Amino acid sequence: MTKRWLTWLLLTLGLGMGGCGYNTIQTEDEQVKAAWSEVVNQYQRRADLIPNLVNTVKGYAQQEQEVLTRVTEARSRATSIQATPELLNDPQAFARFQQAQGEVTSALSRLLVVVENYPQLKSDQNFRDLQAQLEGTENRISVARKRYIDTVQQYNTTIRQFPVNLTAMVFSYKPRENFTVENEAAIARPPTVDFGTAAPAAPSAGSE
Fold it and tell me: Which 3-state string (H, E, C) describes the chain?
């Protein structure tokens, strides 16, 4: 009974000081969910491209099996995680999701290095089509992540502010998990995906 009265007292105080903010919380919570859904959609789009990419590379570079296997395994781990909205309230699950997607990015980066050794592969039309799709997807991932980060920051700020924090406490709204990167500027700079231009040749041992 005491807890119930305390809850209503806190809520009444919040209402008396400019509104409880319940509608604001609802709106921003839905914005977070929508932004998260877009992040998941774009990561899934990338995952859907990987099998065709791997098969195309395999046709020209079967000896690169280790690199191809790493890409395939990284994709498998990433897609095995159920990226539901509930994951946003689970720090450990969110960290696993972020790590798994980072492993996919890392594996794809290693694959791009290998591709530079196969000019015929880079000139293959199917491969070039995949290039364009992958590049576009990486851009979309970057944009989706940035939007998610912004909406979560706004939501987390709102539910910590008085008196809205009282409403958040009464209705059990908690801060949402957010992406962390070593360099925040990297979010706005999509990874370079360029199969069309050969990497500069490394100088030979005897060159100046």
Answer: CHHHHHHHHHHHHHHCCCCCCHHHHHHHHHHHHHHHHHHHHHHHHHHHHHHHHHHHHHHHCHHHHHHHHHHHHHHHHHHCCCCCHHHHHCHHHHHHHHHHHHHHHHHHHHHHHHHCCCHHHHHCHHHHHHHHHHHHHHHHHHHHHHHHHHHHHHHHHHHHCCCHHHHHHHCCCCCCCCCCCCCHHHHHCCCCCCCCCCCCCCCCCCCC
* Better-scored residue on pLDDT, 135 or 4: 135
> What is the model's pLDDT at position 18?
47
Pick from 6, 45, 18: nearest CA to 163: 18
Query: What is the torsional sign of CA 125, 128, 133, 134?
Result: positive
Spatial CA neighbour of 98 closest among 28, 177, 32, 183: 177
CA distances from 188 to 40, 102, 123, 146, 150 (A): 18, 16, 29, 7, 12
Cα distances (angstroms) measured from residue 100 to each of 12, 15, 80, 131, 205: 45, 43, 9, 22, 38
- The CATH code for residues 17-188 is 1.20.1440.20
The domain locations on the chain are: 17-188
Reported as a pLDDT band with limits 50, 70 and 90, residue 4 is low
CA proximity to 74, closest of 52, 104, 99: 104
